[in-house]
Amino acid sequence: MDWDRLRVFHAVVEAGSFTKAGRTLDLSQSAISRQIGALEETLGVALFHRHTRGVVLTERGEDIHATVREMAIKIEMARARINESRSQPEGSLKITTTVAFGSAWLTSRMNSFHMLYPDIAVSLLLVDNVELDLFLRQADVAIRFEPQRHPNLVECRLMSIRYHLFATPEYLARRDVPTCAADLDDHEIIVYGEDMATPVSGINWILEAGASSPRRPALTVSSVYGIYRAVKSGFGIAALPYYLTEESPDLVEVLPDLHGPTIDAFFVYPEELRHSRRIAAVRDFLLDEAGGESAAWSSVP
């Protein structure tokens, strides 16, 4: 089978239509159609069901695509290894993590990384409630917040993150500053929504700390960043990680002797990339960036 035709076939599957694949490959729709037609004639089977809104793989098409996708991944890995053989690390590097951590901590360090490694083109894929598949090369590395159990994943602990209570000066001026945990009964409390996937239990410890009975939250939010924005607006008090609040020196830490559970952050990548110079470059850079801070973040006040 002709690889150029298989490459076109793979692009059509990924795009969902001949037109979109043509834009990706800079080919006309008729050229795409001819390539797919020739491939189907060579194989003697139909690969797609055509309809007005796009294309859907036939059963035989799904079989072929599984193999072609694996081939495409291996070709990309071979290209990456060729790039790794050069003196300076270069090539594309996709990093995935959560929206809050990526927006607040990771992106602010990318300028320094780019100055050190200008030939590495970094893409940050910030997503919540789903983990991109490192084996399908949806991302090259990930920063995750619980230990990984897959035997073909390499992980190293990046930092420990502890949550503390914060509010704005304006809110505290209206409601007084709590002097003990029991005083939280008289405040507007913001917590994580019950449907939010969290890497540790007891993430809403603020509802029980120093309380004779569990407090009722004034607001629940399904993301760390959303809680941060609610606190910034002066809504009330919430538990936030230092990696978010370091971006807002105007926030006031409330009851600094009170703290929540610790969450470990891990730098994770596939075993097959263990010897990648790009991976080593970003791993060592991030470990160095986290080194001074992780000790402070994980310390017990």
Q: What characteristics describe this protein?
A:
301 residues; alpha/beta; Arc Repressor Mutant, subunit A; D-Maltodextrin-Binding Protein, domain 2; 3 domains; 9-stranded mixed sheet; two-stranded antiparallel ribbon; 10 helices; 40% helix; disordered C terminus
Strand content: 15-25%
The CATH top-level class label of the largest domain: Alpha Beta
Please tell me the overall pLDDT: 86
Amino-to-carboxy terminus distance: 65 Å
What's the structural domain tally? Answer: 3
The CATH superfamily of the largest domain is identified as Periplasmic binding protein-like II
Shape: elongated
Radius of gyration: 25 Å
What name does CATH use for the topology of the largest domain? D-Maltodextrin-Binding Protein, domain 2
What is the CATH architecture annotation of the largest domain? 3-Layer(aba) Sandwich
Count of beta strands:
11
> Helicity level, as a percent range?
25-40%
Largest sheet: 9 strands, mixed
- Low-pLDDT sequence parts: 292-301
Secondary-structure-based class equals: alpha/beta
Helical segment tally?
10
Secondary-structure element order, as H and E? Answer: HHHEEHEHHEEEHEEHEHEEH
Chart the SSEs and their pairings.
Layout: H1 3-15, H2 18-25, H3 29-43, E1 48-51, E2 54-57, H4 59-84, E3 91-97, H5 99-106, H6 110-116, E4 120-126, E5 141-144, E6 153-167, H7 169-175, E7 189-192, E8 219-221, H8 224-232, E9 237-241, H9 242-245, E10 252-254, E11 262-270, H10 277-298
Parallel strand pairs: 3-4, 3-5, 7-8, 7-9
Antiparallel strand pairs: 1-2, 5-11, 6-9, 6-10, 6-11
Helix pairs in contact: 1-2, 1-3, 1-4, 2-3
